[in-house]
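Example record

The entry below shows one chain as it appears in the dataset: sequence first, then structure tokens.
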Amino acid sequence: MKKTILLFASTVLMASSLFTACKKNNDSNNTDQLADLGKATITGRVYARLVDTIGANGAQVAPANTVITAWIDTRDLVVNPTGGAYAKRYYTASVDSSGNYKLVVDVSKNQPATVTILPQQFQYNQVRQTNGIIHPDSIYKAQKTYSPGFTSPVSAYNGLTAIQDISYQ
């Protein structure tokens, strides 16, 4: 009987030590940092020479629905990132009929994030113009692939509204 009571007491003691050792960490540094996100807005105009005019320097905009993609490294969304790989978070916008786009991205309220803008290549039937006359006939159109020029990354922070124009060649 003494052996059974001793065995039972030691089992209870071991179980209670296991439950008291496993308590939730209520440290204020261990909060969900992704819950503390704000927004940054990047807008701009997208230029592309859709009408081939000899000697003309006028600004022409990319066609409506041209896709603009941007990404951030989710490491930039946490205050104290740990080692290892972090995923990229992607955002897309479409160019409107006036050539404008608008991206709204998540950013940490505590530090800036680097936003990389990646305009997508597109094809368009470039119209030829001679002597001020735009030729609507397909004989004067040439299928052209437009590639974006270099775009600088944007250092975005909470509440930012930045302008980043894009030019296609």
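Notes for this example: Residues 21 and 121 are 57 Å apart (CA to CA). The chain has one domain: 33-167.
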